[in-house]
Protein backbone atom coordinates (compact mmCIF):
# COMPACT_ATOMS: atom_id res chain seq x y z
CA UNK A 1 0.00 0.00 0.00
CA UNK A 2 1.16 3.51 -0.66
CA UNK A 3 2.06 5.12 2.65
CA UNK A 4 3.10 8.43 4.11
CA UNK A 5 6.08 8.63 6.38
CA UNK A 6 6.94 11.31 8.83
CA UNK A 7 10.35 12.87 8.47
CA UNK A 8 12.43 14.29 11.29
CA UNK A 9 10.39 17.42 11.33
CA UNK A 10 7.22 15.48 11.93
CA UNK A 11 5.72 16.21 8.51
CA UNK A 12 4.70 13.59 5.98
CA UNK A 13 7.45 12.77 3.54
CA UNK A 14 4.98 12.28 0.72
CA UNK A 15 2.22 14.73 -0.13
CA UNK A 16 -0.90 14.59 -2.25
CA UNK A 17 -0.64 10.87 -2.95
CA UNK A 18 -3.65 9.40 -4.78
CA UNK A 19 -5.88 6.94 -2.97
CA UNK A 20 -5.17 3.26 -3.43
CA UNK A 21 -7.08 1.53 -6.17
CA UNK A 22 -9.92 -0.55 -4.76
CA UNK A 23 -9.42 -3.83 -6.60
CA UNK A 24 -10.50 -6.43 -4.03
CA UNK A 25 -14.02 -7.74 -4.40
CA UNK A 26 -15.57 -10.44 -2.19
CA UNK A 27 -13.88 -13.37 -3.97
CA UNK A 28 -10.30 -12.06 -3.93
CA UNK A 29 -10.66 -10.79 -0.36
CA UNK A 30 -11.94 -14.19 0.80
CA UNK A 31 -9.05 -16.03 -0.86
CA UNK A 32 -6.59 -13.54 0.64
CA UNK A 33 -7.99 -14.13 4.14
CA UNK A 34 -8.12 -17.93 3.79
CA UNK A 35 -4.60 -17.98 2.36
CA UNK A 36 -3.32 -15.83 5.21
CA UNK A 37 -4.79 -18.15 7.85
CA UNK A 38 -3.73 -21.40 6.19
CA UNK A 39 -0.01 -22.08 6.06
CA UNK A 40 2.54 -23.39 8.50
CA UNK A 41 0.12 -23.64 11.42
CA UNK A 42 -1.79 -26.80 10.64
CA UNK A 43 1.39 -28.62 9.56
CA UNK A 44 3.27 -27.61 12.69
CA UNK A 45 0.72 -28.16 15.46
CA UNK A 46 -1.70 -30.95 14.52
CA UNK A 47 0.56 -33.70 15.82
CA UNK A 48 1.11 -31.86 19.12
CA UNK A 49 -2.65 -31.42 19.56
CA UNK A 50 -3.28 -35.13 19.04
CA UNK A 51 -0.49 -35.88 21.47
CA UNK A 52 -2.19 -33.75 24.15
CA UNK A 53 -5.86 -34.67 23.79
CA UNK A 54 -5.87 -37.86 21.72
CA UNK A 55 -8.77 -38.44 19.37
CA UNK A 56 -10.52 -35.14 20.10
CA UNK A 57 -7.71 -33.25 18.36
CA UNK A 58 -10.37 -31.42 16.34
CA UNK A 59 -11.76 -29.80 19.52
CA UNK A 60 -8.85 -27.38 20.22
CA UNK A 61 -9.13 -26.12 16.64
CA UNK A 62 -12.82 -25.43 17.24
CA UNK A 63 -12.17 -23.61 20.53
CA UNK A 64 -9.32 -21.58 18.99
CA UNK A 65 -11.66 -20.68 16.13
CA UNK A 66 -14.31 -19.47 18.60
CA UNK A 67 -11.83 -17.22 20.42
CA UNK A 68 -10.34 -15.94 17.15
CA UNK A 69 -13.84 -15.16 15.90
CA UNK A 70 -14.60 -13.06 18.99
CA UNK A 71 -11.46 -11.05 18.28
CA UNK A 72 -12.33 -10.86 14.59
CA UNK A 73 -15.57 -9.10 15.53
CA UNK A 74 -13.52 -6.44 17.36
CA UNK A 75 -11.21 -6.04 14.37
CA UNK A 76 -14.22 -5.68 12.09
CA UNK A 77 -15.76 -2.97 14.26
CA UNK A 78 -12.48 -1.07 14.38
CA UNK A 79 -11.49 -1.46 10.74
CA UNK A 80 -14.88 -0.21 9.53
CA UNK A 81 -14.65 2.70 11.98
CA UNK A 82 -11.02 3.55 11.09
CA UNK A 83 -10.41 2.26 7.54
CA UNK A 84 -6.65 2.89 7.56
CA UNK A 85 -3.93 0.29 7.22
CA UNK A 86 -2.09 0.68 10.54
CA UNK A 87 -4.05 -2.10 12.26
CA UNK A 88 -3.63 -2.87 15.96
CA UNK A 89 -1.13 -0.04 16.56
CA UNK A 90 -3.64 2.50 15.27
CA UNK A 91 -6.44 1.13 17.45
CA UNK A 92 -4.23 1.15 20.56
CA UNK A 93 -3.09 4.70 19.81
CA UNK A 94 -6.63 5.98 19.36
CA UNK A 95 -7.91 4.16 22.45
CA UNK A 96 -5.14 4.94 24.93
CA UNK A 97 -3.08 7.75 23.40
CA UNK A 98 0.10 6.49 25.11
CA UNK A 99 3.11 6.38 22.79
CA UNK A 100 4.81 3.56 24.70
CA UNK A 101 1.71 1.35 24.49
CA UNK A 102 1.43 2.06 20.76
CA UNK A 103 5.09 1.16 20.32
CA UNK A 104 4.73 -2.08 22.29
CA UNK A 105 1.76 -3.16 20.19
CA UNK A 106 3.55 -2.36 16.93
CA UNK A 107 6.80 -4.04 17.99
CA UNK A 108 4.91 -7.09 19.27
CA UNK A 109 3.36 -7.46 15.81
CA UNK A 110 6.86 -7.22 14.31
CA UNK A 111 8.16 -9.92 16.66
CA UNK A 112 5.22 -12.20 15.89
CA UNK A 113 6.09 -11.96 12.20
CA UNK A 114 9.71 -12.87 12.86
CA UNK A 115 8.86 -15.83 15.12
CA UNK A 116 6.26 -17.05 12.63
CA UNK A 117 8.74 -16.87 9.75
CA UNK A 118 11.33 -18.64 11.89
CA UNK A 119 8.83 -21.44 12.57
CA UNK A 120 8.12 -21.70 8.85
CA UNK A 121 11.84 -21.88 8.05
CA UNK A 122 12.29 -25.01 10.14
CA UNK A 123 9.15 -26.60 8.74
CA UNK A 124 10.25 -25.78 5.20
CA UNK A 125 13.77 -27.10 5.77
CA UNK A 126 12.56 -30.43 7.16
CA UNK A 127 10.02 -30.98 4.38
CA UNK A 128 12.47 -29.96 1.67
CA UNK A 129 15.05 -32.45 2.92
CA UNK A 130 12.42 -35.19 3.16
CA UNK A 131 11.37 -34.37 -0.40
CA UNK A 132 14.94 -34.99 -1.53
CA UNK A 133 15.03 -38.37 0.22
CA UNK A 134 16.50 -37.54 3.63
CA UNK A 135 13.73 -38.80 5.93
CA UNK A 136 15.67 -38.20 9.14
CA UNK A 137 17.85 -35.10 8.63
CA UNK A 138 20.13 -34.05 11.45
CA UNK A 139 19.42 -30.92 13.46
CA UNK A 140 22.57 -29.35 12.07
CA UNK A 141 21.50 -29.94 8.48
CA UNK A 142 17.99 -28.60 9.13
CA UNK A 143 19.54 -25.57 10.80
CA UNK A 144 21.78 -24.91 7.80
CA UNK A 145 18.87 -25.15 5.36
CA UNK A 146 16.63 -23.00 7.58
CA UNK A 147 19.27 -20.26 7.81
CA UNK A 148 19.89 -20.45 4.06
CA UNK A 149 16.17 -20.03 3.48
CA UNK A 150 16.16 -16.91 5.68
CA UNK A 151 19.04 -15.53 3.60
CA UNK A 152 17.05 -16.18 0.44
CA UNK A 153 14.10 -14.30 1.96
CA UNK A 154 16.40 -11.40 2.83
CA UNK A 155 17.75 -11.32 -0.74
CA UNK A 156 14.22 -11.28 -2.18
CA UNK A 157 13.27 -8.62 0.34
CA UNK A 158 16.23 -6.46 -0.69
CA UNK A 159 15.13 -6.54 -4.31
CA UNK A 160 11.92 -4.76 -3.32
CA UNK A 161 9.29 -7.39 -3.92
CA UNK A 162 5.94 -6.45 -5.45
CA UNK A 163 3.73 -9.37 -4.36
CA UNK A 164 0.36 -9.40 -6.06
CA UNK A 165 -2.92 -10.61 -4.62
CA UNK A 166 -3.33 -12.92 -7.62
CA UNK A 167 0.00 -14.59 -6.83
CA UNK A 168 -1.22 -15.12 -3.27
CA UNK A 169 -4.34 -16.73 -4.71
CA UNK A 170 -2.21 -19.27 -6.61
CA UNK A 171 -0.28 -20.18 -3.46
CA UNK A 172 -3.52 -20.39 -1.48
CA UNK A 173 -4.78 -22.95 -3.97
CA UNK A 174 -1.53 -24.95 -3.50
CA UNK A 175 -2.04 -24.84 0.29
CA UNK A 176 -5.65 -25.94 0.04
CA UNK A 177 -4.75 -28.71 -2.42
CA UNK A 178 -2.15 -30.15 -0.04
CA UNK A 179 -4.65 -30.17 2.82
CA UNK A 180 -7.35 -31.61 0.54
CA UNK A 181 -4.98 -34.52 -0.22
CA UNK A 182 -4.61 -35.23 3.50
CA UNK A 183 -8.38 -35.05 4.04
CA UNK A 184 -9.04 -37.19 0.95
CA UNK A 185 -6.61 -39.88 2.12
CA UNK A 186 -8.15 -39.82 5.58
CA UNK A 187 -11.66 -40.39 4.30
CA UNK A 188 -10.42 -42.96 1.77
CA UNK A 189 -8.89 -44.98 4.60
CA UNK A 190 -12.08 -44.61 6.65
CA UNK A 191 -14.17 -45.69 3.64
CA UNK A 192 -12.06 -48.85 3.22
CA UNK A 193 -12.70 -49.72 6.84
CA UNK A 194 -9.04 -49.36 7.82
CA UNK A 195 -9.48 -46.10 9.71
CA UNK A 196 -10.54 -45.98 13.34
CA UNK A 197 -13.26 -43.31 13.20
CA UNK A 198 -14.42 -44.18 16.72
CA UNK A 199 -11.28 -42.56 18.10
CA UNK A 200 -12.44 -39.03 17.26
CA UNK A 201 -14.48 -39.00 20.48
CA UNK A 202 -11.75 -40.50 22.67
CA UNK A 203 -9.96 -38.11 25.05
CA UNK A 204 -6.45 -39.09 26.09
CA UNK A 205 -3.97 -37.02 28.08
CA UNK A 206 -0.37 -38.18 28.58
CA UNK A 207 -0.08 -36.00 31.70
CA UNK A 208 -3.37 -37.17 33.25
CA UNK A 209 -4.87 -33.71 32.90
CA UNK A 210 -8.62 -33.28 33.00
CA UNK A 211 -10.45 -32.49 29.77
CA UNK A 212 -10.73 -28.76 30.52
CA UNK A 213 -7.03 -28.18 31.27
CA UNK A 214 -5.82 -30.45 28.47
CA UNK A 215 -8.01 -28.63 25.94
CA UNK A 216 -6.80 -25.29 27.35
CA UNK A 217 -3.18 -26.27 26.68
CA UNK A 218 -4.07 -27.68 23.26
CA UNK A 219 -6.05 -24.54 22.36
CA UNK A 220 -3.02 -22.36 23.13
CA UNK A 221 -1.04 -24.61 20.77
CA UNK A 222 -3.78 -24.55 18.11
CA UNK A 223 -4.05 -20.76 18.18
CA UNK A 224 -0.92 -20.51 16.03
CA UNK A 225 -2.90 -22.05 13.18
CA UNK A 226 -5.77 -19.53 13.45
CA UNK A 227 -3.77 -16.31 13.26
CA UNK A 228 -3.46 -14.41 10.00
CA UNK A 229 -7.01 -13.07 9.72
CA UNK A 230 -5.87 -9.88 11.47
CA UNK A 231 -3.49 -9.09 8.58
CA UNK A 232 -6.43 -8.58 6.24
CA UNK A 233 -7.23 -5.23 7.89
CA UNK A 234 -4.20 -3.89 6.03
CA UNK A 235 -6.10 -4.47 2.78
CA UNK A 236 -9.07 -2.32 3.76
CA UNK A 237 -7.99 0.66 1.64
CA UNK A 238 -7.90 -1.58 -1.43
CA UNK A 239 -11.26 -3.28 -0.83
CA UNK A 240 -14.44 -2.34 -2.64
CA UNK A 241 -17.19 -1.28 -0.24
CA UNK A 242 -15.31 -2.58 2.84
CA UNK A 243 -18.06 -1.81 5.35
CA UNK A 244 -20.38 -4.18 3.53
CA UNK A 245 -18.16 -7.05 2.42
CA UNK A 246 -15.34 -7.08 4.99
CA UNK A 247 -17.35 -8.56 7.90
CA UNK A 248 -18.90 -11.27 5.74
CA UNK A 249 -15.63 -12.30 4.08
CA UNK A 250 -13.52 -12.32 7.26
CA UNK A 251 -16.01 -14.49 9.16
CA UNK A 252 -16.47 -16.77 6.14
CA UNK A 253 -12.70 -17.12 5.79
CA UNK A 254 -12.34 -18.11 9.44
CA UNK A 255 -15.16 -20.63 9.03
CA UNK A 256 -13.58 -22.22 5.95
CA UNK A 257 -10.21 -22.48 7.73
CA UNK A 258 -11.60 -24.17 10.85
CA UNK A 259 -13.61 -26.68 8.80
CA UNK A 260 -10.45 -27.62 6.88
CA UNK A 261 -8.46 -27.88 10.13
CA UNK A 262 -11.06 -30.07 11.84
CA UNK A 263 -11.24 -32.41 8.83
CA UNK A 264 -7.43 -32.63 8.82
CA UNK A 265 -7.46 -33.48 12.54
CA UNK A 266 -10.09 -36.18 11.99
CA UNK A 267 -7.96 -37.64 9.17
CA UNK A 268 -4.87 -37.69 11.37
CA UNK A 269 -6.68 -39.45 14.22
CA UNK A 270 -8.37 -41.98 11.93
CA UNK A 271 -5.28 -42.93 9.92
CA UNK A 272 -2.36 -42.88 12.36
CA UNK A 273 -2.24 -45.55 15.10
CA UNK A 274 -2.76 -44.24 18.63
CA UNK A 275 0.73 -45.28 19.75
CA UNK A 276 2.36 -43.21 16.96
CA UNK A 277 0.19 -40.12 16.96
CA UNK A 278 2.15 -38.26 19.61
CA UNK A 279 5.51 -39.10 18.02
CA UNK A 280 5.50 -38.50 14.26
CA UNK A 281 8.39 -39.76 12.15
CA UNK A 282 9.72 -36.21 11.90
CA UNK A 283 8.26 -33.91 14.57
CA UNK A 284 9.26 -30.71 12.83
CA UNK A 285 8.11 -31.71 9.37
CA UNK A 286 4.72 -32.36 10.91
CA UNK A 287 2.42 -35.34 11.19
CA UNK A 288 0.62 -34.77 7.88
CA UNK A 289 3.41 -36.47 5.94
CA UNK A 290 2.78 -39.58 8.05
CA UNK A 291 -0.90 -39.48 7.06
CA UNK A 292 0.13 -39.55 3.40
CA UNK A 293 2.69 -42.33 3.88
CA UNK A 294 0.49 -44.55 6.06
CA UNK A 295 -2.81 -43.89 4.33
CA UNK A 296 -1.60 -44.16 0.72
CA UNK A 297 1.61 -46.23 0.75
CA UNK A 298 1.10 -47.51 -2.81
CA UNK A 299 0.59 -44.09 -4.35
CA UNK A 300 3.44 -41.75 -5.36
CA UNK A 301 1.83 -38.87 -3.50
CA UNK A 302 4.44 -38.83 -0.76
CA UNK A 303 7.10 -38.09 -3.39
CA UNK A 304 5.74 -34.59 -4.08
CA UNK A 305 3.69 -33.85 -0.95
CA UNK A 306 6.71 -32.44 0.97
CA UNK A 307 7.32 -29.99 -1.87
CA UNK A 308 3.68 -28.85 -1.73
CA UNK A 309 4.25 -28.14 1.95
CA UNK A 310 7.30 -26.09 1.03
CA UNK A 311 5.22 -23.91 -1.29
CA UNK A 312 2.48 -23.67 1.32
CA UNK A 313 4.73 -22.16 3.98
CA UNK A 314 7.34 -20.27 1.94
CA UNK A 315 5.01 -17.47 0.91
CA UNK A 316 3.76 -17.09 4.49
CA UNK A 317 7.34 -16.73 5.71
CA UNK A 318 8.16 -14.21 2.98
CA UNK A 319 5.14 -12.04 3.78
CA UNK A 320 5.95 -12.18 7.50
CA UNK A 321 9.52 -10.98 6.95
CA UNK A 322 8.42 -8.33 4.49
CA UNK A 323 5.88 -7.07 7.01
CA UNK A 324 8.37 -7.10 9.88
CA UNK A 325 11.10 -5.22 8.00
CA UNK A 326 8.67 -2.62 6.65
CA UNK A 327 7.16 -2.03 10.10
CA UNK A 328 10.65 -1.58 11.57
CA UNK A 329 11.40 0.84 8.74
CA UNK A 330 8.13 2.68 9.33
CA UNK A 331 8.79 3.05 13.07
CA UNK A 332 12.30 4.31 12.38
CA UNK A 333 10.88 6.94 10.02
CA UNK A 334 8.34 7.82 12.73
CA UNK A 335 11.28 8.48 15.12
CA UNK A 336 10.20 5.61 17.37
CA UNK A 337 13.23 3.41 16.67
CA UNK A 338 16.81 4.50 15.82
CA UNK A 339 16.83 6.44 12.51
CA UNK A 340 19.53 4.16 11.08
CA UNK A 341 16.85 1.46 10.74
CA UNK A 342 15.09 3.71 8.23
CA UNK A 343 17.92 3.77 5.69
CA UNK A 344 17.23 2.53 2.16
CA UNK A 345 19.35 1.34 -0.75
CA UNK A 346 19.79 4.14 -3.32
CA UNK A 347 19.03 1.90 -6.30
CA UNK A 348 16.56 -0.70 -5.10
CA UNK A 349 15.08 1.69 -2.54
CA UNK A 350 14.54 -1.20 -0.14
CA UNK A 351 15.04 -0.78 3.65
CA UNK A 352 18.31 -2.70 3.86
CA UNK A 353 19.11 -1.93 7.51
CA UNK A 354 15.64 -2.98 8.68
CA UNK A 355 15.91 -6.13 6.55
CA UNK A 356 19.31 -6.94 8.06
CA UNK A 357 17.99 -6.29 11.57
CA UNK A 358 14.95 -8.58 11.23
CA UNK A 359 16.98 -11.27 9.46
CA UNK A 360 19.60 -11.28 12.22
CA UNK A 361 16.85 -11.57 14.82
CA UNK A 362 15.44 -14.56 12.92
CA UNK A 363 18.93 -16.10 12.71
CA UNK A 364 19.38 -15.72 16.46
CA UNK A 365 15.96 -17.22 17.22
CA UNK A 366 16.38 -20.21 14.91
CA UNK A 367 19.86 -20.98 16.24
CA UNK A 368 18.91 -20.47 19.90
CA UNK A 369 15.88 -22.74 19.69
CA UNK A 370 17.86 -25.49 17.97
CA UNK A 371 20.28 -25.64 20.86
CA UNK A 372 17.38 -26.98 22.94
CA UNK A 373 15.82 -30.43 22.96
CA UNK A 374 14.05 -31.90 19.93
CA UNK A 375 10.68 -31.67 21.69
CA UNK A 376 10.89 -27.91 22.15
CA UNK A 377 11.97 -26.92 18.63
CA UNK A 378 8.50 -26.62 17.09
CA UNK A 379 6.80 -25.55 20.31
CA UNK A 380 9.11 -22.65 21.10
CA UNK A 381 8.64 -20.43 18.06
CA UNK A 382 5.08 -21.34 17.05
CA UNK A 383 3.99 -20.95 20.67
CA UNK A 384 5.80 -17.62 21.00
CA UNK A 385 3.99 -16.36 17.90
CA UNK A 386 0.65 -17.29 19.45
CA UNK A 387 1.69 -15.77 22.79
CA UNK A 388 2.61 -12.44 21.21
CA UNK A 389 -0.55 -12.23 19.12
CA UNK A 390 -2.78 -13.22 22.04
CA UNK A 391 -1.37 -10.19 23.87
CA UNK A 392 -2.13 -7.99 20.85
CA UNK A 393 -5.64 -9.45 20.55
CA UNK A 394 -6.32 -8.75 24.22
CA UNK A 395 -5.42 -5.09 23.69
CA UNK A 396 -7.48 -4.87 20.49
CA UNK A 397 -10.56 -6.22 22.29
CA UNK A 398 -10.11 -3.72 25.11
CA UNK A 399 -9.52 -0.91 22.59
CA UNK A 400 -12.77 -1.85 20.87
CA UNK A 401 -14.63 -1.28 24.14
CA UNK A 402 -12.82 1.97 24.91
CA UNK A 403 -13.48 3.37 21.43
CA UNK A 404 -17.23 2.83 21.78
CA UNK A 405 -17.19 6.43 23.05
CA UNK A 406 -16.76 7.54 19.42
CA UNK A 407 -19.89 7.22 17.28
CA UNK A 408 -19.80 4.99 14.22
CA UNK A 409 -22.20 3.92 11.50
CA UNK A 410 -20.13 0.89 10.59
CA UNK A 411 -20.13 -2.68 11.86
CA UNK A 412 -20.82 -3.01 15.59
CA UNK A 413 -20.28 -6.17 17.60
CA UNK A 414 -22.49 -7.01 20.60
CA UNK A 415 -20.76 -5.67 23.74
CA UNK A 416 -20.35 -9.14 25.20
CA UNK A 417 -18.15 -10.16 22.23
CA UNK A 418 -15.06 -7.94 22.88
CA UNK A 419 -15.50 -8.54 26.62
CA UNK A 420 -15.31 -12.31 26.15
CA UNK A 421 -12.57 -11.91 23.56
CA UNK A 422 -10.37 -9.92 25.95
CA UNK A 423 -10.96 -12.33 28.85
CA UNK A 424 -10.31 -15.50 26.85
CA UNK A 425 -7.24 -14.14 25.04
CA UNK A 426 -5.81 -12.96 28.37
CA UNK A 427 -6.59 -16.38 29.89
CA UNK A 428 -4.61 -18.17 27.18
CA UNK A 429 -1.60 -15.96 27.99
CA UNK A 430 -1.18 -17.61 31.39
CA UNK A 431 1.31 -20.37 32.31
CA UNK A 432 -1.60 -22.76 32.97
CA UNK A 433 -2.15 -22.79 29.19
CA UNK A 434 1.35 -24.11 28.55
CA UNK A 435 3.30 -27.29 29.09
CA UNK A 436 6.39 -27.15 31.26
CA UNK A 437 8.57 -27.42 28.14
CA UNK A 438 6.77 -24.42 26.63
CA UNK A 439 7.81 -21.96 29.34
CA UNK A 440 10.72 -20.96 27.10
CA UNK A 441 8.13 -19.05 25.07
CA UNK A 442 7.95 -16.39 27.80
CA UNK A 443 11.73 -16.01 27.74
CA UNK A 444 11.82 -15.59 23.97
CA UNK A 445 8.94 -13.08 24.00
CA UNK A 446 10.48 -11.12 26.89
CA UNK A 447 13.87 -11.06 25.18
CA UNK A 448 12.43 -9.74 21.92
CA UNK A 449 10.29 -7.08 23.57
CA UNK A 450 13.14 -6.17 25.91
CA UNK A 451 15.36 -5.49 22.90
CA UNK A 452 12.63 -3.30 21.43
CA UNK A 453 12.24 -1.34 24.66
CA UNK A 454 15.99 -0.71 24.82
CA UNK A 455 15.97 0.61 21.24
CA UNK A 456 12.92 2.75 22.02
CA UNK A 457 14.59 4.25 25.11
CA UNK A 458 17.78 5.00 23.17
CA UNK A 459 15.74 6.72 20.49
CA UNK A 460 13.87 8.79 23.07
CA UNK A 461 17.12 9.87 24.70
CA UNK A 462 19.08 10.64 21.55
CA UNK A 463 16.45 11.81 19.10
CA UNK A 464 13.56 14.09 20.07
CA UNK A 465 11.41 14.86 17.01
CA UNK A 466 9.64 18.18 16.56
CA UNK A 467 6.38 16.56 15.50
CA UNK A 468 6.34 13.92 18.23
CA UNK A 469 6.35 10.16 18.02
CA UNK A 470 3.65 8.45 15.96
CA UNK A 471 2.70 11.82 14.48
CA UNK A 472 1.18 10.05 11.48
CA UNK A 473 0.13 6.72 12.97
CA UNK A 474 -2.68 6.32 10.43
CA UNK A 475 -0.02 5.67 7.80
CA UNK A 476 2.67 4.00 9.87
CA UNK A 477 1.94 0.47 8.73
CA UNK A 478 3.40 -0.60 5.41
CA UNK A 479 1.99 -3.09 3.00
CA UNK A 480 4.72 -5.59 2.04
CA UNK A 481 3.72 -5.26 -1.60
CA UNK A 482 5.25 -1.81 -1.86
CA UNK A 483 8.73 -0.43 -1.88
CA UNK A 484 9.22 1.84 1.12
CA UNK A 485 9.73 5.11 -0.71
The overall number of domains is 1
Radius of gyration: 22 Å
The level of helicity is: 55-70%
The CATH superfamily label reads Amino acid/polyamine transporter I
Give the strand tally. 0
CATH class: Mainly Alpha
Uncertain segments are 1-20, 477-485
Description of the structure:
The protein is an all-alpha fold. It has one domain: Amino acid/polyamine transporter I (Up-down Bundle), CATH 1.20.1740.10. 64% of the residues lie in helices and 0% in strands. It has 15 helices and no strands. The chain has helices spanning 26-37, 40-53, 58-81, 87-96, 99-131, 139-158, 165-192, 211-226, 242-271, 288-295, 301-333, 352-370, 374-402, 416-427, 440-462. Helix 4 (87-96) packs antiparallel against helix 5 and helix 5 runs antiparallel to helix 13. The longest helix is centred in the first third of the chain and has 33 residues, at 99-131. The model is unreliable at 1-20 and 477-485 (pLDDT under 50).
Key features?
485 residues; mainly alpha; Amino acid/polyamine transporter I; 15 helices; 64% helix; disordered N terminus
Short recap of the structure:
By secondary structure, the chain is mainly α.
